[in-house]
Amino acid sequence: FLNAQLTSMLGKSLAVSTQKAEAAILFRTDSSLSKEAYRLKVTEKGIEISASDRVGAFYGVQSLLALLPPAAWGKTQTGLSVSGVEVSDQPRFGHRAVMLDIARHFHSKKQLQKLLDLMGFYKLNVLHLHFSDDEGWRLEIPSLPELTQVGAVRGHSNTPLKNLPPAYGSGPDIGNNAGSGYYSRQEFVEILRYANARHIKIIPEIEAPGHARAAVKAMEARYVTKMAEGRKEEAEKYLLYDSADRSMYRSVQMYNDNVINVALPSAYRFLETVTDDILAMYREANAPIETIHYGGDEVPAGVWTQSQAVEKLRQLNPELISADDLGYYFYGKINDMVQKKGLFLYGWEEIAMRKTMLDGKSHVIPNPDFVGQEVQVDVWNNVLGWGAEDLAYRLANAGYKVVLSCVTHLYFDMSYYKSFEEPGYYWGAYTDVDKPFSFIPYDYFKNSKEDRLGNPLDRSIFNGKERLTDYGKQNIVGVQGLLWSETVNSPERMEYMMLPKLLGMAERAWAASPEWAEKNDENAYQKAWSVFANQLGKRELPRLDAFAGGFAYRLPTAGAMLEGNQVKANAQLPGLTIRYTTDGSEPDAGSATYLQPLPVSKVIKFRVFNSTGRGGRTVEVNP
Fold first, then answer.
1. Which of 91, 126, 157, 568 is 20 to 30 A from 343, alpha carbon to alpha carbon?
2. Is residue 615 a contact partner of residue 596, using CB atoms and an 8 Å limit?
3. Alpha-carbon distance 205 to 211, whole Å?
4. What DSSP string runs through 434-496?
5. Is-catalytic flag, 298?
6. Residues 117 and 110 sit within 8 Å (Cβ to Cβ)
7. Cβ neighbour number for residue 539 with a 10 Å cutoff
8. Measured between alpha carbons, how far apart are the two ends of the chain, in Å?
9. Of 190, 298, 466, 518, which one is the catalytic site residue?
10. DSSP helix/strand/coil, 127
11. What would the pLDDT profile of 50-63 be if each residue is shown by its tens digit?
12. pTM value > 0.85
């Protein structure tokens, strides 16, 4: 891997030997180092990378590459200089993840591989692939071809159940936009191999029982086709809905037909068939798999309340009183299924929660059914002011394995800041690169300063909330940055929303807890942020201009203010250039560089540029 990287920069391959010999770059096995740890030593005599395993050696390679000048990428040169350094390094968390939603809008194999390159460089080791949802099913399942024939295509059609309807602006036309598309079985095997070469585990997500409209409709189309052929038994084999169900509900996205009926044996046959086909792909790719994510979030109130299939199930199981009980029943069966296949159960926070009553009001507690069974959950809902701020800590304290996926700091689809022109959502937070950088995994109450709308936070919301115990800390297995793609319909938008936020998250996932976090020292934090901002603007972003073909990361807007008879401007990150115009034209790479305050006389337009001449959004000062 290292030789391939250096060959792309030097234009020729280096000699490689597995025999002990004098070498410019030497790899050593050191069994005293822990998993994923490495030592990197650069002296005048050469370079040594030591590790106890291949993944540690890989991370040593990435740190070596990070020492090369940012301009080394994307061109051929005769030589490379590396600063003398001695590094001993290991990760804080074993699960350092990115969740990518490819269901709402599809992202190509090429773009996914580009993301894997980025993740490998920043030592992120899990790609949580959200490939199924209401609006799309993006992975070929050979046993059930209808899943992609119907579920991977959006657009208008005169034929019922031929495809899914448009969503999120994907438009009426079929097949020529990000609303349609999927990975073939062979493509996914190739993606798995690509990820495995970078020591990244891909965890696929089968959304169930809610957020499953694409699967429900695809299996309905299968049913109609088989019934027309006179094959009733085959038609009902994988059916996900009860035709006699008169339950009334609306999901968060306003669907009334997007939930799998958990009383149907065919639902479990469907999930096991999909699971088996996925496991076969991993075996072919020789890629590791320990779990599959089975969703579990946002099952709406009202489901399964007027289903004949549910009534029959209740007659056989009198303990199933409420719809909530049916959810626990469903995940109990899924847990049994995955354990038999050598996997552990993974899902959203809801699978770890049990609803009960306290003082006559609905109350949520950790579900005792799965405690002690290595069940792992992504906890997203810590929205400040909604009441579940401590949910991640309560579940970890109760014994669940928790991946912190907090909307307040780690949802990359949230808008960077409060501005009409800035894309993204804002229902849960505003999230710029400083939010993930400032995240304190074991106590995010400590330095939370603003509510979900960016207003000063009323810290009384933390009164009575559960803190993370020392036992609970052992159950925080990792940190995950998430990119939901309702508004992400192109590679450029994907990179804009993800970068540079991902770099702040990668720092918190890998690096040891910083002193400013332990002491909640604002002055120390500001110093650490200054160091990080300088590294980001002067080293990492210039590297990303060419790394893996270059990334369309977000360039910050200039800050501008009137002060007396002068206009002052600044940029969020050092290393970037502010340019301006005074004639009403849009600033470009040839416009004047802002170096000092300007006199107030006419309209001034400011715009931040990177080293390649690409500019951010223009800010106008009109005195």
1. 91
2. no
3. 11
4. HHHHH--TT-TTTT--B-TTSSBP-GGGGTTPPPPPHHHHTTEEEEEEEE--TT--SHHHHHH
5. yes
6. no
7. 14
8. 56
9. 298
10. strand
11. 999 999 999 999 99
12. yes
